């Protein structure tokens, strides 16, 4: 079964790097995706919307024409969930990497600083300490070197979902900043931001302790966790 890897903000398909290599070595067919506007620093991203990113992944799913697994990191998880809503019959599982399903009407993050209609990778001070666990200076420099500005509307457009069959799609959450136990407690306690996840009929929570970018900080372990999720 094919895996589609959906990167989070500021990242392209190549950012999955060693994770892609490890998954292919494990015998998986992997498609690391580069979303519209993230092709290069100079790409025109002025009019790109959240729906454009969702539609690009839907097109990739349709091109394969068989059931696939979606792996979404960070904001890419929200995109993966919208694709599961659009094509529930073609999505066998969604694997969320330090992310989760964004419900109808939600936004990914409309608090990020917009500069000239796009969102450059912010200063590290914008992020929480939990985000930056294991992010060495070398890894931060690498991230900054490969980062592309994110289309502003991808961060601020409202999620649009309409098919309740999405709740039938099995979900795995790879928990990095929060432990699986902490996340389950939030679900049990009715925390609003996990309401969409709580509605999923089949979910598995697994731990991968690190910061927000395990594809950089723990790529081997992340690849193993993805394989385990399948």
Automatic annotation (TrEMBL):
Gene3D superfamilies: alpha/beta hydrolase. Keywords: Hydrolase. The keyword Hydrolase applies. Residues 3-225 form the AB hydrolase-1 domain. It holds the Pfam family Abhydrolase_6. One of its GO terms (molecular function) is hydrolase activity. PANTHER family: HYDROLASE ALPHA/BETA FOLD FAMILY, PIMELOYL-[ACYL-CARRIER PROTEIN] METHYL ESTER ESTERASE. This is Alpha/beta hydrolase. It comes from Antiquaquibacter soli.
């Amino acid at each position: 079964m094919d895996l589609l890897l959906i990167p989070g903000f500021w990242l392209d398909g190549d950012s999955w790097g060693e994770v892609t290599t490890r998954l292919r070595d494990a015998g998986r067919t992997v498609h690391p995706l580069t979303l519209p506007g993230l092709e290069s620093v100079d790409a025109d991203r002025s009019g790109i919307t959240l729906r454009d990113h969702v539609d690009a992944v839907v097109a990739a799913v349709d091109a394969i024409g068989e059931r696939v697994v979606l792996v979404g990191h960070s904001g890419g998880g929200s995109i993966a969930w919208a694709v599961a809503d659009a094509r529930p019959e073609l999505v066998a599982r969604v694997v969320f990497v330090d992310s989760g399903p964004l419900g109808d009407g939600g936004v990914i993050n409309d608090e990020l600083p917009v500069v000239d209609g796009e969102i450059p990778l912010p200063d590290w001070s914008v992020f929480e300490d939990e985000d930056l666990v294991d992010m060495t200076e070398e890894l931060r420099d690498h991230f900054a070197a490969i980062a592309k500005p994110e289309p502003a509307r991808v961060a601020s457009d409202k999620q649009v979902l309409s098919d309740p069959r999405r709740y039938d799609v099995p979900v795995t959450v790879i928990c990095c900043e929060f432990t699986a136990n902490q996340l389950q407690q939030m679900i049990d306690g009715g925390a609003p931001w996990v309401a969409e996840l709580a509605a999923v009929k089949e979910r598995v929570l697994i731990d991968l302790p690190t910061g927000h970018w395990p594809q950089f900080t723990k790529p081997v372990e992340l690849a193993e966790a993805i394989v385990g999720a399948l």
